[in-house]
Each structure stands twice: as structure tokens, then as C-alpha cells.
Amino acid sequence: MKNIIYIGLFIISITKFSAQKDSLQLGDSYADDQIYFSVSYAQFNNQPTTISRSNFSYAVSAGFMKDIILNKRGNISFAAGVGYGFDFFNHKLKVEELNTGTSFDTGADLASNIFTSHNLELPIEFRWRTSTAKKYDFWRIYGGVKFLYNLSNTFRFEENGTNFSYNNVSAFNNFQYGLTLSIGYDVFNINLFYSLTPVFENATINGEGINTSILKFGFIFYIL
To answer: What is the per-residue pLDDT across 94-109, written as a single tens digit (0 to 9) for each?
Structure first.
């Protein structure tokens, strides 16, 4: 019964929002608050020379953006939001958490080698679009910065028939950020995230620094 009530309230809120937008006239100030959902192909970038390219990896995220209008027409704005992101990497770097700290080695011969993370997302965007108070299908270019705070991370692999798993390794950089860019029309948009911070702190492998960062590109969908 509670679920039905929640769904009903959600539908009412959407209807109310749509009615408010329909009452606007050309030139009225309006905000384009949105729920976003993205799905991306992901790769580790700037890997050490001894580590080969990762296999198929992906990332998904969802959240809410609050739109703040910067001009009367409403086609230029600033937006800030909050969301959740999940990353899945099928990679080649062997990561272990030992008594002495985090250890790194090549993982090319491992039967499987998976990294997953759950992150709190704080996106900030500068937005340009061709919308008006009466035009909901429009072109957009949104660029900005996304801050990530890691809630949990897990590195697990299989070696010689034995499974190993390490949670919240000490060398992991819990606070990361990167540049974002979204370009598209209406609901469907191409999205890019380029991390400016390394995944690990003070990490080396065979004397070489590990400056691994994250690159994601895929699609982002804006609702409402």
C-alpha cells in the first residue's frame, strides 16, 4: 500500500511540474531541474607500462541536478547536483592489501581480476541549450566538473584456483574529481568523464609510479 502511495505522489509531482512549465510564456525565467541516468564504457587511463589494457568495463550513475538560470531566456544556466555511481573494471593490475599496506603487481596471468566501487557523486555544470519556456526538445552542451567520494571499493581476483578479495584498500584515493561533457538532443546525449586525479595514492610497481586514472564515455539521459 505504501508503494502505491509513493508512486501516486511521484506521478502527481511530475504532473504539477509539467503544468507549471505549460503555464510559462516565451521569455519567462524557468529552471530545467532534472534527474539524470548514465551508462558508460570505462577504462583505466595512464596505466604503468607493464600493465596491458583492461577488458570490457562499465560504469552507471544516477542523480538529481538543480538548475539555476543565468539569463532571462533560460538557455544559459549553472547546475549542481548529487548522485550515486557504480564502477566495474575487468582489469590487469593485481592489487593486494597486506599488513605492510597495498601491494601492486602484474595480473596478466590471473584467471579473473575485478575491481568495483560505489561512489557519492557531486556534479557541477555550466549549461547552454536551445530551449525556451515552451520548447522541451532542444540541443544542449553541458560542461563541468564531477567530484567523487568513494563509499566502498573491492579488488578481487582468482589465482591458481584460489579466490582473493580485498575491501577498501589503504592506497585507494577516496576523493577524486574530473571533467565532464554532455552533448546531445532531447533525452539522448553523449557523455564523457575524464578523471584528473589518480585512483591510487603514492603507489608504485617495479619502481614506476602508478598514475592510473579513469576515462568513461557513453550516454546520459535527462528526465524532466
So the answer is: 999 988 889 998 887 8
